[in-house]
Amino acid sequence: QSQLVESGGGLVRPGGSLRLSCVAPGFTLRDSTIGWFRQAPGKEREAVSCIDSSGDSTNYADSEKGRFTSSRDSAGNTAYLQMNSLQPDDTGIYYCSLSRYNLCSNDVSNFNSWGRGTQVTVSS
Fold first, then answer.
1. What are 88-111's pLDDT values in tens digits?
2. CB neighbours (10 Å) of residue 36?
3. Which value, to the nearest 10 degrees, does the dihedral of the CA atoms of residues 23, 48, 68, 118 take?
4. In sequence order, what are the residues at sequence separation of 6 or more whose Cβ sits closer than 8 angstroms to the Cβ of residue 54?
5. 102 vs 35, 39, 71, 107, CA distance in Å?
6. What is the structure's pLDDT at 2?
């Protein structure tokens, strides 16, 4: 299985922005469906956003719609999660993962090839 690597997390003030990146060394993401997930302290991992093989993006929580956007570079080597107007509730470890079935889903079990995640902390 391909191992994904996330980056781009950090400490940001409320209202700030971050762009997370996801790569799979030695493997192209061009034809894959990539899910983005967040695990907040003491909570289960939850779906945040997804981009399918055709480039369509989906968000899974009303609080994120209009603030979070999934994308992929033209070469298909890197997937991104652009996060704007960040709030303290957005704090957590963010992961990217490959869909087993090449379809977007908010079901964690439909994804594999998890990376180690990148920490996002929103605090003043």
1. 999 999 999 999 999 999 999 999
2. 27
3. -40
4. none
5. 10, 22, 15, 13
6. 61
- Residues 6 or more apart whose CB falls under 8 angstroms from that of 70 comprise 34, 36, 49, 50, 51, 57, 58, 59, 79, 80, 81, 82
**Segment 23-49, tens digit of pLDDT:** 998 888 888 999 999 999 999 999 999
Burial per residue of 80-117, b for 16 or more beta-carbon CB atoms within 10 angstroms, e otherwise: bbbbeebeeebbbbbbbbbbeeeebbbebebbebbbeb
Residue partners of 39: CB distance under 8 A and separation at least 6: 45, 46, 92, 93, 95, 117
Spatial distance between the Cα atoms of 34 and 95, rounded to a whole number of angstroms: 10
